[in-house]
Amino acid sequence: MDGVLIIDKPPGLTSHDVVDRVRHILHIRRVGHTGTLDPFATGVLIALVGRATRLAQFLSGLEKEYMAIIRLGYSTDTGDVTGKRIPDTLDGAKSAGPWSREEIEAALESLRGDIDQVPPMYSAKKQGGRKLYELARQGEEVERQPVRVCIHTFEAIKPTGELLKDNLDGTFDFEVRVACSAGTYVRTLAEDFGKRLHVGAHLAELRRTRVGDFPIQQAKTLEEVKVSFAEEALGTILHKPDAALSRLPFVDLSADEVTRVRRGLNIRVEGAAWADGERVRLRDQHSQLVAVAEFSAADGSLHPSVVIAVEPT
User: 2, 8, 38, 80: which one is catalytic?
Assistant: First the structure.
């Protein structure tokens, strides 16, 4: 039972809660995930099962894609709908709306590409050995260093239709699609978008629709995982470890090379044009992942850094 489950996380659960439920459903302890998703958010959460948990280091840096609703009108202490409303502290703040299409597009454009983000206080990022949200819950706020992230896509979902939904309570909802690098806080992006329009803002909804090459269409609910396991059909939804690393180049090994790699020994490759230190999948004769190796340009060898396949007994 080694592989990758693409879970459609429901609202209200932490990523750790989801891992615990998968452990309970599959009756296996070795389950992990590749990146947290806020409790109020839904969507793609990659769960690694069995020996595939060793692949987490190769998957945590994948880009993400989201559908989100930014609520313009006021900010919250958490940056999302679960937080408490906070007084407007923006210079030149104005009542919500109306904004022209040109103003909205200018605000979106200013937040595309490489930008610096200050991590929110309500986040799992550690500072001084403590998670920021632990400090925030105690009423503490500490200075955080900005982090460089890349916003590949930040656009309105309805670019030609009604951009803003008037909630008739002084707030407007703006639906967006975001594709971004790992480590991006969409909550912070929403707040910064509001600042460009001189109004408080927070996330009303957030749904992760893709992680790397795994789209939401492949995701299964926890109930669907439970049913598949009960019907002994888990193999129909459990992705093989090799599929999780499809972006890496690969080498198909001979039987003798598979034995060497399982023992952690290097193998030589002829005429390889990979960069020094580049990661390469090593597969057996059945295209099953045996290990992930690092290429040494100095001697043209592949050194297994993470071995997935076990030595036959």
Answer: 38
